[in-house]
Amino acid sequence: MGVSVEASEQVFSTMCALDAAGFNSDESTLAEMPSRLALRTELLNLRGPATDALRDFYRDHKLNDPGETLSRFITFALVVGPPPRFNYLLDHDVLPPDVLAIEEFQEILQNFHKEAHLDLRWQRVQPEYERAVARDESPVRRIVLVSNGYLREIYNPRFGHTFTVYVEPLVGARTNFRNNGDHYAIVIGAGQEFPTAEVQHAYLHFMLDPLPLKYRNVLMQKKGILNAAALAPRLPVEYRSDFLAFSDECLIKSVELRIRHLKPEELEKALVENDRAGFVMVRPFVAQLQKFEKSEPAMSLYFPDLIAGIDVEAERKRLQNFAFAPESDAAAAFAKKSERGAAVPTDELSQLLAEGDHEIATQDPTAAAATFQKILAKHPDEPRAFYGLAVASLLNHDAPRAQELFEKLVSPPHTGATDSAGAPVTSDPSILAWSHVYLGRMHDFADERDQAVSEYEAALAIDGAPEAARAAATRGVTTPYGPLFTLLTYAIVPLGIAGGLWALKLLAALLSLATVALVWQVAKRLGRSPTLAVAIYGLNPLVLVFAVAGAQNDTLVGMFVIAGVLWLVTSRERAGAVALVFAAALKASAGLVLPFALIGAARRRRTAVAMLAALAVVAIVAVAAFGTDLHGFLHALLGEQREVSPRSLPSRVSRLLGLGRLAEVVRVAFLTLFALALLAGLGRAWRGSWWLDCYAWVTLALLACTGWLLPWYGIWALLPASLSQSRRLQTVTLLACVYLLAIKIA
Hints:
It contains 39 helices and 4 strands. The protein is mainly alpha-helical.
């Protein structure tokens, strides 16, 4: 019915990884789960490269508060799909900040899952989990019954609207709640006491969250109350500027109070506590709920009346001189927090650093930034606070500020005292390495590939850099480009970053002009209109704006492809075959043309021999230059196929079906469609259709089926389509170019 109690293999695998890494899980809940208890010991004794990488990653990413460390990894488990891939279910730009901080854990967990054979271990302990699930189904049903009864709602499950209680005994007494769109989930332990209050709070969110959004216009008329509530020092930052979230939380707190049937004096005490904490709408909501209880409509129908009954002016007067609880109360409460056997920081600096980590982990980068600024006011030479402020700025979508801070952290040592505008000198390899990695990612996001590679290489050059940072930097350096292009880029290294970038732009412009000249020649040889062919390719914005101005290597690849076509149509098969192989050696995607060219060649045997010889030469040169590092190219090529562009067709379909950014089943379905299109295209070419047209159609299919789509990829289909006699092919290709241009502009 959309509400369920389950055991999650994703959460289990994540907890197994934490077990192996040495996280101090709560074993007190495993008295009735001997197999799971024995598994903990086995995992702690595991050895292997994936396990070693896992332990290094955990050491580099654990927080001062073990509870917050657990929370960020559980949050990760709630936004990924099933093993063994653990694909993210959300687009990268909407991943929770605490998951972004450990996003490389996905690959770490993939490798550990395989090495530790967690699939077999899961089968062994699954019966124990199923017994725990069966035990918790009754209290969950009771919560649903009581909550729905009070709200007078009959839950009507919509497609994809789910509430799931995941049982994982090793999370102990701490619960973790997350909602991803229509998917609400809470992870609970398997202790003696069922966490009724926490599960009920999560379920009320599931039931009531849609109402403030549905009646937004009515609710926003009461926004003036937030002006008073925002003065409360203890009100969480996320509520101070988001009235919908604030009112939603107050509504849920008020429903909880009414469901508990408190005595008048107990209710008043709870209302005072909420008022002092800043949740000042709880009191008027409770008053309106008392009227709701005497009416007949369900909450989903009564909600506008509930809101209308709140008197903003009366609430303002009530709160005009109200004494909110001081912030020191919250700070003291935070300082007292500890897990079983965990040490609590006692000095002020450690407490503030732990508090900043806590605020980042709980998706509050604004509060984290304030905390780190507070540290820097007293300790301007504290690099951990400076680094924390940079991370908080990045999570708060202030990329320019984050980049400025990271660049100051990695700048050469300077003399003199620092202040909030400067940066402390630090030799901490973890801070330096991760700062370079973050800078590399920001440059990559801005299409500044040369600067990005420089940052990744700087991270790799730091002695003592964490393995996780080195792995992230290595992934940043390796590219899916072919070995010949990588060798060619070495020639521009002496020019520096700026000089190299302009050299690539100039080279792209010259190569595009050469390609246009070759398109003219091929069109004349084929009896096509040279003017039309040149106009379709040479004047296309994808070529001028993205390939040339963006210094993309597709201009070099395109020149070799069109040169190969020219030599093939003029019966110089050996030269044509070599040119096409070189194109594939520059960029792997160009290899798609090889089988079509072989089928279309007048002398296939001669063409095949030339292709094999050219491939052998490329392989020898690549091995001589890179040796065993060739695996990096293959790793990056496969890694790019796991990337997801939110505007690719597979990603759009996956999200339309409610399956996340790109579900594996959708990816496989589109890859199957492309395989069928490829076979059909090769079959048509074999039966005598013009091979370049067949190649163009299959390339369009590739653009439609790939999950990683960038605008300049349209050049792959544009070049052969410009030489076609098929107006339908040219029209479809130009429409595809319009779409690719639109996704870049939008």
